[in-house]
Each structure stands twice: as C-alpha cells, then as structure tokens.
Amino acid sequence: MLKGLFSAASGMRALEMYTDTAANNLANVNTAGFKRSNVQFMPFAEVMINRLHHDDQQGVGAYASGTVVPGTPVDHRQGAMVATGNVLDVAISGDGFYQIQTDEGQTGYTRNGTFTLNALNQLSTHDGHLLLANGEPITIPSRSAKIEIKPNGTVYADAQPVGQITLVGIEDKATLLPAGENMFFATEDTTFTSVDGVLQQGYIERSNVNVIEELINNIKGQRMYESLKTSITTQDQTLAKAMEMGQVR
C-alpha cells in the first residue's frame, strides 16, 4: 500500500514538470527563435516480486516503484520564417546561433534575431545583451540613414561596412545549458563547428511551438495528475480502514 502511495506521488511530481513545461512552451509561442522543451519520463529501477507462501517463492513479476524526470531536452528544430520589414530583425536560415554578451560578460547563444540599438548605438537584444561580431560589439554610426545586413552577416551603414555578424555552430546542441531569456550557455562538453546558416534581414524565426500539441499535453497532464490524486486518496482511505480493522479486538 505504501509503495502504491509513493508511486502515485512520484508520478504527480513528474506530471507537475510536464504541465509546467507545456505551459512555458505556450507562453513563448510568439517569442522569436524560441525552442520548445520536452519532458523525459523514466521509471525507477524495477524490483522482482516473489510470492511468499510456505516454501513457494514463485516469481510474480517486476515492480517499478515510481517515476522520475531525468531531463527536459530542448527541441532545436527550426521555426517558420516570417517577414516583418524591420531592418533590425534578422533570421537565421539553417544552422547556427548568434553570439551575445551578457551584462556579466558571459557569452551566450541565441536564435532570437530581433535586435535593437542601445544608448551607444550598438546592436543588442531587447534584453540588453550585446550582439557580437568576432567577439566585439557592432556599432552603427549615429544618423545612419540605411542599415543593410547581408546573408553572410556583413553589416553596412550607409553603404559602409561596420562589422560582420558571426554565426556559431554547435556540434551537439544537447550540451548547451538553457540560461533563460531565450539564451543558452556553452558547457565543458560543447564543441563548436562551422555553420551553413545564412541571414535574412527583415525576417524573424518564429518559435517551433505547436499550440495544439502543447494544449493537448497540458490537458492530458492535468487529467493524469487528477487521476493519481484520486488514487492516493483511495489508497489512503483503504489504509485507514485496514488500520482500524487491525485495532479491533
């Protein structure tokens, strides 16, 4: 009975993460370059159950005592391209990440190409992180009438080159660490490679979230959670009855 309570409780904890992940995916459906996350489920190690009756120890079968979530891997498939007409919106067609610098000086990686100009006329994300070109920020001269960003990343201000956006390839994207704000950090296992991505000015890459799929996942997770909650209540009541019967003299 106690094993059943533990199994149901571990399932509820796993489903909380499942519904939270689906809700976060839905909340970022309109975030440019956002990559949805999945939830992995894995049972605890199975234990063999034997029938114990006198000398009979015939095997009954295996019992898994609960569920654990080993991780929430990110789905890095590319989202759809959408034209915006904004000269500072740049989408990556193909593989690659933008390099950005946080306020703490760390280098992050993102697919969100909705850029803006900060107070120093430097290209940056809307969160204030600097866009890097070969490790340096790109400064647009003040009063520039025309900004062009070529497919190879070269940035022109009034026909004069001012920098080149450098895309970075990641050999195994599973080694990236989600850092919030639609950004990832590299880890010691991250290996950088060349990329084949090209830039499209005036476009954004939509998130790869499927709204219908995430709504279904959210509803399914809530229903399964309620089922396990009912199971715990039933087991608790049964256990209470058994204890009452054991106290009868």
Description:
With 249 residues, the chain is α+β, with helices and mostly antiparallel strands. It contains 2 helices and 21 strands. It has helices at 2-27, 211-247, and strands at residues 40-43, 46-50, 59-64, 67-71, 81-83, 90-93, 97-101, 107-110, 115-117, 123-125, 130-133, 136-137, 147-149, 154-157, 160-164, 167-170, 177-180, 183-185, 192-193, 198-201, 203-205. A hairpin with a 2-residue loop joins strand 11 and strand 12. Helix 1 (2-27) packs antiparallel against helix 2.
What topology does this entry show?
Elements: H1 2-27, E1 40-43, E2 46-50, E3 59-64, E4 67-71, E5 81-83, E6 90-93, E7 97-101, E8 107-110, E9 115-117, E10 123-125, E11 130-133, E12 136-137, E13 147-149, E14 154-157, E15 160-164, E16 167-170, E17 177-180, E18 183-185, E19 192-193, E20 198-201, E21 203-205, H2 211-247
Antiparallel strand pairs: 1-4, 2-3, 5-21, 6-20, 7-8, 7-11, 7-16, 9-10, 11-12, 13-14, 14-15, 16-19, 17-18
Helix pairs in contact: 1-2
Strand proportion, as a percent range, falls in 25-35%
Shape: elongated
Strand tally: 21
Distance between the termini: 23 Å
The low-confidence parts are none
Oligomer: single chain
Structural class by secondary-structure content: alpha+beta
